[in-house]
Amino acid sequence: MKQLSLFPEWEEKSSEKSTNSCDERQRVEAKFSNLMQEELRLGKLVSYVGNKSLPILGLYRYKEAFAFSFVEEFIKRFRLTDQDLIFEPFCGMGTTAFTAMQANIQAVAIDQLPVAAFVAKTIPLFWRVEPSELFHSFEVLKGQLHKFEPAEVALDVAIMKKAFSSEILTELRQWKSAIETLSNPLKDIFLMLFLSILEPCSYTAKDGQFLRIKRDKKIYSPTEMLQQKIYQARQDILHIRSLWGNKKRKLPDIQLVDARDLKNIKFPRKPTAIITSPPYPNRYDYTRIYSLELCFNFVKNFEELKALRFSVLRSHIESKIQDNDAPNHPVIAEVVDILKQQSKTLNNPRIPNMLVGYFVDMSLVIQEWYRVLASGAKIAMVVDNVRFAGELVPVDLVLSEMAEKVGFKVKEIIIARYKGNSSQQMGKYGRIPMRESIVVWQKI
Ligand SMILES: C[S@@+](CC[C@H](N)C(=O)[O-])C[C@H]1O[C@@H](n2cnc3c(N)ncnc32)[C@H](O)[C@@H]1O
Known about the structure:
The chain is of the alpha/beta class. It is built from 17 helices and twelve strands.
């Protein structure tokens, strides 16, 4: 992918620049200080917790999601109507797309993680399904379960061997085969519910940045869990019908696409808004957190899982950098220099490369947004700042300055909440909270 320089004058001078200071970080803080304001009320909306009790969205635990009400809030603030087109470049479970559908606004949404794109595509289908069909199919499949051969899944991936007891693994694989006999949309709906029970039926727990093995946790029976999910789905379908009525809704267009390259997306017209949240440069690896789901349906073996790991945005520690990748913003150069000098105190020596790769990727993403959006289009993007070995990275401000260079106007940087750090880091570096911000930009 081509890498355009957004800061050519700085890059020419950068070899002479002094390091080991916070000059650049102080500069960007001062530059954007008049656009920054706290709206801590929004803090609870930038987490998925608000979705847990909502019909349909609560059926899948995508813990990196933001809340339905966050999207509603920005649909209102941006005064979006059914004449608008919302683009969601990092759709995750599809919160933005589903909320747009509720507001009768057309949406195009993409994600590079197949399980995310699948869930985002399936969630809007629930509304169209008869609950009685769900029950009937479940009972039929349950009655024949013992006859199904266990489905092929990616058993060569190490976590698959540790995650399940052998009986549960066989039962899950039989359910997978049984579901494959259905036709759509029921098949996808069952598959989504099936993927949602893998964690409760396993010894794994999605815990912060890790998928941990917890031998002492309670394990649920796949058939019972699936039955519970079917009950919940039934309630949710009835609930959403009572809220939405029979009015025809615009199904969102969900695609498995890399946000760094949008040339193959055919937008019905130019998008007028983006409401999104990208991965953060915090070492988080979606292909590990969702490895069970991926191994059951989206990758055939470890090789494919690894290939996927290297194809997502470089927010995690195994990200590779290319020979021509270099810090593409003065703040990143400053932080990377300092971290390289302190490599002994860094808990992972690959952190500087991850930061370089992440900001190169995000500059491509932002340039693509500028290219595809309509003039006047508005963007609301949730981002977390990060800190490594005590060095703060103001992700919100670096991305905002990149956006400005591309041609966006930075309208606001809303501080939604402050996050602490690990207690270990707190002890070492003091209690400096980090911003979780909503950056608001406009294409002018
Ligand atoms: C913070 S999550 C977004 C959650 C979403 N707002 C929701 O409510 O579910 C970031 C998403 O970016 C996706 N992602 C990672 N690399 C990507 C890429 N290169 N292109 C598109 N999406 C990518 C991840 O799979 C993840 O679903």
